[in-house]
Amino acid sequence: MPIQTNKRQRTCIACGATQQKGAFHRIVRTAEGAAAFDPTGRAAGRGAYVCTGACLAAAKKTRKLERALRCKVTDQDYERLAREIALVEAPGRNEE
After folding, report:
1. Residue-wise pLDDT tens digits, 68-86
2. Which terminus of the chain has fewer CB atoms gathered within 10 Å of its CB, N or C?
3. Domain ranges of the chain
4. Residue of 96 and 86 predicted with greater confidence
5. Do 25 and 88 form a contact (C-beta atoms < 8 A)?
6. Sign of the C-alpha dihedral, residues 45, 17, 86, 65?
7. What's domain 10-89's superfamily in CATH?
8. Which of 3-17, 28-42, 44-58 has the lowest mean pLDDT?
């Protein structure tokens, strides 16, 4: 009989909610030290998870994303991340 394993839970850096990896949006620190949206969840680099665009805004306000990624996140990075997350969260898109 196969051993049943538990999937690791991820935690939103802004609100502290814990869920499966697929329920979150992953933001990764690139090799250049910038923050980038990771739609696949498999990009190399240090990553952080947020639930929604609202949690991204809260993470910006409290600088939690900068602490989690251990790098400086510019306002342009936050704007780009918010746009990319909004596209993924847009109504009518299929959930994976």
Report:
1. 999 999 999 999 999 999 9
2. N
3. 10-89
4. 86
5. yes
6. negative
7. YlxR-like (3.30.1230.10)
8. 3-17
